[in-house]
Design brief:
mainly alpha, about 5% strand, two-stranded antiparallel ribbon, about 130 residues
Amino acid sequence: MKTLLNLVWLIFSGLWMALGYAIAGIVCFLLVVTIPFGIACFRIAAYALWPFGQTVRERGDAGVASGIGNVVWLIFAGIWLSLGHIVAGVLFCVSIIGIPFGLAHFKMIPVSLMPLGREIVPSGSAAAYPGYRW
C-alpha cells in the first residue's frame, strides 16, 4: 500500500516538490555560506519524493548552530514553505481520495519549517522511536 501511495504521490505532488527543493539546494550550494541549508533542501527533496513509510525525527546531536540556522531558515524560507504545504494539504483533503496526500503535506510541515537538526528515518525502524526499547 505504501508503494502505491508513493507512486501516486510522485505523480501528483512529489516530483514537483522535490524538484523545487533540489533547485533551492543547488542555489544554496552556490552561495557557499548557505551549504548547510542546501544539504537540508536535498534531504527534504528526497523525503518529498517518497514520504509514505518514512518519518522525521530530531537528532540528538544537533547543537546551538542548528537552532540558530533554523531561526534564519524560519524567517527566510520556513514560513513560506509551511504555508505552501498547508494550502496544498487543505486542497488535497477536499476530496476523500486526496486525504492521504493532504496528510502527507501536513506531515512535511515540521521539516520544512525547521529542517536543521532533523533526519528522515523509516517509520517502522527503531531509529524512529529513540526512547523505546525493542
